[in-house]
Amino acid sequence: MIVVMAKDSSAEHIGEVERRIESHPGLKAQVFNGIERVVIGVLGSIPPDLKDEIELLTGVLEVVPISKPYKLASREFHPDSTKVVVGDVVIGGSEPVIMAGPCSVEDEEQMVATARAVKASGAKILRGGAYKPRTSPYSFRGMGIEGLKLLKLAKEETGLPIITEVMAPEDVETVAEYADILQIGARNMQNYTLLDRVGEINKPVMVKRGLAASYEEWLLAAEYVMAGGNDQVILCERGIRSFEQYTRFTLDVAAIPVVQRMSHLPIVADPSHSTGRWYLVTPVALAAIAAGANGLLVEVHPNPDLAKCDGPQSLTFENFDALMQQVRSVAAVRRSPVEVT
Amino acid sequence: MIVVMAKDSSAEHIGEVERRIESHPGLKAQVFNGIERVVIGVLGSIPPDLKDEIELLTGVLEVVPISKPYKLASREFHPDSTKVVVGDVVIGGSEPVIMAGPCSVEDEEQMVATARAVKASGAKILRGGAYKPRTSPYSFRGMGIEGLKLLKLAKEETGLPIITEVMAPEDVETVAEYADILQIGARNMQNYTLLDRVGEINKPVMVKRGLAASYEEWLLAAEYVMAGGNDQVILCERGIRSFEQYTRFTLDVAAIPVVQRMSHLPIVADPSHSTGRWYLVTPVALAAIAAGANGLLVEVHPNPDLAKCDGPQSLTFENFDALMQQVRSVAAVRRSPVEVT
Amino acid sequence: MIVVMAKDSSAEHIGEVERRIESHPGLKAQVFNGIERVVIGVLGSIPPDLKDEIELLTGVLEVVPISKPYKLASREFHPDSTKVVVGDVVIGGSEPVIMAGPCSVEDEEQMVATARAVKASGAKILRGGAYKPRTSPYSFRGMGIEGLKLLKLAKEETGLPIITEVMAPEDVETVAEYADILQIGARNMQNYTLLDRVGEINKPVMVKRGLAASYEEWLLAAEYVMAGGNDQVILCERGIRSFEQYTRFTLDVAAIPVVQRMSHLPIVADPSHSTGRWYLVTPVALAAIAAGANGLLVEVHPNPDLAKCDGPQSLTFENFDALMQQVRSVAAVRRSPVEVT
Amino acid sequence: MIVVMAKDSSAEHIGEVERRIESHPGLKAQVFNGIERVVIGVLGSIPPDLKDEIELLTGVLEVVPISKPYKLASREFHPDSTKVVVGDVVIGGSEPVIMAGPCSVEDEEQMVATARAVKASGAKILRGGAYKPRTSPYSFRGMGIEGLKLLKLAKEETGLPIITEVMAPEDVETVAEYADILQIGARNMQNYTLLDRVGEINKPVMVKRGLAASYEEWLLAAEYVMAGGNDQVILCERGIRSFEQYTRFTLDVAAIPVVQRMSHLPIVADPSHSTGRWYLVTPVALAAIAAGANGLLVEVHPNPDLAKCDGPQSLTFENFDALMQQVRSVAAVRRSPVEVT
Questions:
Q1: B17 Cβ partners below 8 Å, 6+ apart?
Q2: Are residues A155 and A56 in the same domain?
Q3: Contacts of B249 in chain A (CB under 8 A)
Q4: Who among D2, D35, D67 is closest to A2 (CB)?
Q5: Domain co-membership, D98 together with D39
Q6: Do A8 and A124 fall within a single domain?
Q7: pLDDT tens readout for residues B267-319
């Protein structure tokens, strides 16, 4: 941590900053006299609230953190990429893993038909919402436990592991009974009670990026889960909120290589929620794969125009199959060695 | 709801849209032939997911909602301003109500001293956090129930009603035993399980605006609480996330008159969290009052530079007292009739 | 255009809106009685300021434009994709066109060496800045006309056509003498004097998206150029400003398929400026190609760490060559027909 | 400037960074060994592009600038507040200065009537657009020089000095003949050719904040003007672009006290353009004054619903007069000393 003093700060102000830093056991202050101003470096393991404490001492212009506030999620501390394993599916390996299925579970026929179709096209994991976060209290909010049972049925029919969202801390245990991967939705990325709870279970957790979350805040959400003892965390870029509102959200495709540099956790992308329009799903999905995503989360529905939720962004079976062919080809380009001439 | 057809949509496409609209009981479609294109109006009480359903029919260019998705929170449906009453304090009346206290409850001395000081300066409600949402899992996360007990003690000493945050659905009942107003934090504005739960209690609820929430989404969060049966809802503008990051968030001061036009619910502002710096709190607080805010939520601490949380944005007792004098004067300007020459 | 009346608007208010609409020659108002409210449709060719005029009549709740304000740039009015031809290079055809070169022109050796290297790797157009927009007045602002001469020299040596930025209306003529494509920078996207001026020349113009420009505003900037008589316009997505500031800007990859749907103009992407970091350029460039971009604008420098401008985001010759190999492979995937099973 | 090295950087990497820093005449590197990593401080007067140069050396994790890139506009270097004097009007003194008038100049009667009305209500400066930046090429773009002449006429009638926008470098001289203050619009805040040109004249210049400009970029735009030799610069907060689009822009009220701390230049606010709706102008204007703004820029029109431009955000004479009464009262609160109890 670096403390930048104002140009006109006095020797007393500087002394007080030093004193306050060194009042924390194990910390040392080192003063650095520049031409325009004095800068004080802090040596030692920085407590998370030290920045706040020092920032309001008289004469302090700015406090610049140097160490990142996340450790468990950081690649600097864990150079090897994490692989999250679900049955024989490896997320974070050499192949992107496609997770597909309807926005919300509606009935047995829909689930089983969709599971079979996405499996036939190459999806490795089945998605489907039983508990649905909805902006309006009057929208369809999911089938709940009945939905979980239909997901299980579809899994039995096809062998596809299941990913589904959990919204309430008290549902974590139940959802974990049925699901192979628990999903934390974007709106709950900073629902710390929920993050603490999924940190205690022994199942992989996918943390979607919040609508307004910086990379650092997103990795800190993963850190919450990992600090609870669960290190099987997958990140999911699903679009941020920007001023552009033709698309539902703005997929930040650079997040993929950035997060792969900052963190060892696998990262997938959700082209369906980010765009909100089915005809944008394929180009954006291919973009994510080309950028190096470890997987995709894609909404597929037998009859998008009859879907109870998010129909406009769901692919038909045919469109999904076409997407999968292109995904495989783009992934092959990413894998093939480049010959430097 | 208005359905805009693409220029080249056929009579069949138009017919299918009509048919789909009228397949919902009580809805009627009315076709409107423009010069460049056809537009179809929908008459009747629109189900929340109809937009999604119609949007992906062939030939549809755009679906424009006309009715707002919130009803209970809407001023159009409830023209009279709501007054939320807590003991003898009226939020939404002619006087702005100031709620003040420390970011987090730390000990008895701090709480009682702060309660006395803010009361002496004119605050009507005591704030203090017992459950603290923190970006990092390693930061101080509040005293929990012990904090609630200290808040109660400070209330007994001063008579000030209490506002405090509730983060987890399972804590709602406990927090409601101690608090006079329950606060939903910005990060939980779309934690629907929590909103449902506070909708079932009989205590006022303050809903802070999410970091990336539009006015409509914010009012829909209030609608969740009201749809549960609790109509004592207060809104709180606490800054949105923008590209400008010198301040922690960007206080959207226009939100105050906008929300007062869209909704009948009282709205207060939080100048402490939005700015993140104590020297910005007073000008921004006065701005909010001048814009017509029904109250303020202000962080005050006996020794900001020793606070366990958010010290940099807390006012000293002296600064708070000075603020209160100015608040009263600005509020008087807002109240006094203007003589049109 | 649709005028939505407030629930409590009177017959007189509605009559006044009708009267005002029909006071414009050629416009007709058509009233549409809904259950909750009245909506008035406007038939005819809408003048651009009509929305403003109607919006403040008493009883009007909202005015919803239906027609888009751009015509010349719109695909609805010009279904065929535009191909911009520069010598034997076609931008908007089946192959993505790569434009590469240094951020700023520095000297003959740098320009000629870079031109040769990027040509050898497959670039079809040479980029290089002679007039540089810089945030600080104290940064290197380009070589001006001497830079244009060096670009011309590099063109003579390699045969590569040139794209370069023009910043001032009075430089348009001079820049057009040397350049094959004139570039309008993001900061000048709404510099209307400049847009008017490049609308009068007979050379292709690339319009970069403004940092805070919506798709519609961007297409209106293209419309300015086209309204001046120049229909050889290329669009360039170069990242928008969002709250995320680890990258310089946020490349909005969905802009590519969206703009291709809204407009007939070719669209390219700039992975260098959007990310600001060389190690992000390749993944983001491939993402743009996978999403269907008609080309790329890439910064390449013989010695990025000695560049006078934007070194951190420039690729070396080796990295650029590796990128080109992958670009070709991803572009091939986009082109190859998908067999629907 | 502080250079943060990666955890695993070698002694050679560190040595190379030192060498590169010290290759610049007058700079010195000072290495600082932390527990987790090495940090290198740079002493001396930092060239503007050094950050870019160092950032891509091997082993460098991050480069943190400490000095601000603006000097002439900085309060640290110029502690006394600047007063811009126009005739007997002082902008930046103890009284807020209200500048009012129509969005665009339309005819003599409109200009003279408006000038008289706003003067009677207490405005000190007359605003009016002769050159209008418009998003669509088909909107009314102002009367040009004829508009300047009408402004001059209104000045002769009332004695009010004039502020008006200049859009093109080649118009600067002409506009400066007629205007007392030249306005640089938000869309031109980074039109560096224009900034350079107004830096050469001897008239005050108002620099509006760009839609997506950070405080630092805005102050650098002022720095451009000042670096040209013109130190009579006024800043204007007119709303930034955020995800919230009910209002045209989001007025960042905290910008007022922040800029007053960072810079010695006066700052005014534009409640008309930021909100885009007349009924929001008064509350937002009062908020800006309460926050300490040195003035306001307000759109006033004799008949807003017949205005050729921005009618929906213009005040009538009556509403403006009522606003002025409240402005005076709020300004008096800001000025009156607060008695600390």
A1: B3, B5, B29, B40, B54, B57, B59, B60
A2: no
A3: none
A4: D2
A5: no
A6: no
A7: 999 999 999 999 999 999 999 999 999 999 999 999 887 788 777 889 999 99
For residue D49, which residues of chain C lie inside 8 Å, CB to CB?
Answer: 139-140, 308-309
Q: Domain for residue B340, yes or no? A: no
Structure tokens at B281: 């709190």
Sorted by sequence, the CB contacts under 8 Å of residue A101 that are 6+ apart come out as A111, A114, A115, A118, A123, A126, A127, A128, A299, A300
**C201 located within any domain:** yes
Q: For chain A, 341 residues long, give each residue's pLDDT as a single digit of tens.
A: 889 888 888 999 999 999 999 999 888 888 877 777 888 888 888 887 888 888 888 889 888 887 788 999 999 889 999 999 999 999 999 999 999 999 999 999 999 999 999 999 999 999 999 999 998 898 888 999 999 999 999 999 999 999 999 999 999 999 999 999 999 999 999 999 999 999 999 999 999 999 999 999 999 999 999 999 999 999 999 999 999 999 999 999 999 999 999 999 999 999 999 999 999 999 999 999 999 999 999 999 998 877 887 778 899 999 999 999 999 999 999 887 776 54
Chains that touch A (3 or more CB pairs under 8 A): B, C, D
Domain with residue C291: its CATH number is 3.20.20.70
Same domain for D305 and D166, yes or no, is yes
Q: CB-CB: which of A32, A43, A66 is closest to D4?
A: A66
Q: Give the integer Cα–Cα distance in Å for C281 and C307.
A: 17
Domain that holds residue B165: 84-335
Do C142 and C184 belong to one domain? yes
Residue of B nearest to C5 (CA): B66
CB contact under 8 A, C67 and B36: yes
Residue owning tokens 């949509």: B9
When divided into structural domains, chain D yields a total of 2
Q: Residue D122 in 3-state DSSP?
A: coil
Considering the domain architecture, whether residues C156 and C26 belong to the same structural domain is answered as no
CATH code, domain carrying C56: 3.30.70.1140
Could you tell me if B291 and B152 lie in one domain?
yes
Choose the final residue of a domain: D10, D31, D64: D64
8 A C-beta contact, residue C215 and residue C70: no
Do C35 and B44 make contact, defined as CB atoms within 8 angstroms?
yes
Tens of pLDDT, residue by residue over C262-307, are 999 999 999 999 999 999 999 999 999 999 999 999 999 998 877 8
Please tell me which of the candidates B30, B44, B242 has its beta carbon nearest to residue C32.
B30
Give C241's contacts in chain B (Cβ within 8 Å): 243
According to DSSP, residue B145 is labeled H
Closest residue by Cα to residue C247 from A254, B155, B105: A254
> Do C127 and C200 fall within a single domain?
yes
Q: Where are the beta strands (DSSP E) in A197-251?
A: 205-208, 233-237
Q: Do B57 and A212 touch (CB under 8 A)?
A: no
> Which chain C residue has the Cα nearest residue A287?
C287
Minimal Cα distance from C9: which residue of B?
A: B76
Buried residues in C23-52 as b, exposed as e (16+ CB within 10 A): eeeebebeebebeebbbbbbbbebeebbbb
Write the residue in A253, A284, A290 that is nearest to C330 by C-beta.
A290
Q: Nearest-CA residue of chain A relative to D245?
A: A243
Query: Among the three residues B14, B35, B64, which one is the final residue of a domain in this structure?
Result: B64
- Best CA proximity match to A333, nearest among C287, C300, C97: C287
- Asked if the ipTM is above 0.90, the reply is yes
Evaluate whether residue D37 is within a structural domain.
yes
Residue of A211, A223, A311 with shortest CB distance to B53: A311
The alpha-carbon gap from B43 to the nearest alpha carbon of chain C, in Å, equals 5
Estimate the share of chain C in helix, then strand, then coil, as percent rounded to the nearest 5: 40, 20, 40
Region B152-177 average pLDDT: 97
Q: Do A34 and D45 touch (CB under 8 A)?
A: no
Cβ distance D318 to B340 less than 8 Å, yes or no, reads yes
A233 assigned to some structural domain: yes
